[in-house]
Amino acid sequence: MPRPAAKSSPRRRAPPAAAITVAAEARLPAAADLDVRPAEDVVKLMLDEELSAVRVARARSAAIARAAELVAARLTAGGRLVYVGAGTSGRLGTLDAAECVPTFGIPPSRVAAVMAGGPGALTRAVDGAEDNARDAEGRMRRIAVGPSDVVCCVAATGVTPFIRSALEYARFRRAATIFVTCAAPEDGDPGADLVIDVVTGPEVIAGATRLKAGTATRVVLNAISTAAFVLLGKTYAGMMVDVRPTNGKSWAHAVRIVNLLTGLDDAASRALIEKAGGRAKVAIVMHHARVTAARARELLIEHKGALRAIIGDVEPGAPAAP
User: Fold this and answer.
1) CB burial class (10 A; 0-12, 13-18, 19+) of residue 1?
2) How confident is the model at residue 276 (pLDDT cuts 50, 70, 90)?
3) pLDDT digits over 231-266, tens only?
4) pLDDT value of residue 8
5) What per-residue confidence (pLDDT) applies to 158?
6) Among residues 49, 130, 137, 168, which one is catalytic?
7) Is the pLDDT of residue 10 over 50?
8) Catalytic entry in 50, 69, 99, 186
9) What are 54-62's contacts with CB under 8 Å, separation 24+?
């Protein structure tokens, strides 16, 4: 029997008897003879199905855009994007959270991930993790989900007890909520502010949602976070101008971006980034506005990080100004 809810906790409901949709477990007719096909035929079938998953995600672009706007609004207000999931869904959310930090130069604290079963579940399956509602509430409490946050719950096959509990706790704490799934939940409305249902249908291997459902999930999460950070001024002319150089590869990216947007050679671009405290965006403002690093940072704060509002339209690759 579920334990009674504490007075300070959101109301609990019993988990649904069937959290996995019929579509996720259905057999794909085209894969009936999969085990006797040549390897190339297996690969072609899989990739055809992967392409179909991306097309389904593309059809949900309006809902994905609304999610990105919601994320951008909460981040602007000082909140966080919090991904929640179990199994493959949880791993994909954790991956997206981790990749946002170096790509867009944000503090790790601004994008968080809650994984059913804890950090150990990132590399190995934890039995019963997605059915543990109590664990979900505990983990949401530990990261102090609150009214300024947006919680994005991810579950390929519908609402699991872990996800339902996480959503209930997020609503209790007045956080905004998004639910991403690759199948329409059979147990009713999950109660999220925004539902993105990317119905990918039967897998090449029945029930293996790490395949095209995983691809669709990855595409959707990528689109939500990337579009949100574009709205927040983290890019310019399709380049990640807020990249923070921490290794040889990211330094090369930063130098190339400054080179393209200032016309300076590589050595001068690198020297300018160093003067800017390792921030390519600050370096670009320093060059175009002819100001110090401190003033460049002030200008970026005044313009809410929007580089175009400061330097206008710059053609990448144009010669440096005399």
Assistant:
1) exposed
2) very high
3) 999 999 999 999 888 899 989 999 999 999 999 999
4) 40
5) 80
6) 130
7) no
8) 99
9) 54/215, 54/216, 54/219, 56/198, 56/199, 56/200, 56/216, 57/198, 57/216, 57/219, 57/220, 57/223, 60/196, 60/197, 60/198, 60/220, 61/223
Contact in structure between 217 and 198 (CB atoms under 8 Å): yes
153, amino acid identity: C
pLDDT at 189: 65
CATH entry 1.10.8.1080 includes domain 248-311: yes
- Tell whether the model's pLDDT for residue 286 goes beyond 80: yes
Amino acid, single-letter form, for residue 203: E
CATH code of the domain made up of 22-231: 3.40.50.10490
Q: Does residue 130 carry a catalytic annotation? A: yes
Q: Domains of the chain: which residue ranges? A: 22-231, 248-311
Residue position matching structure tokens 């872990």: 162
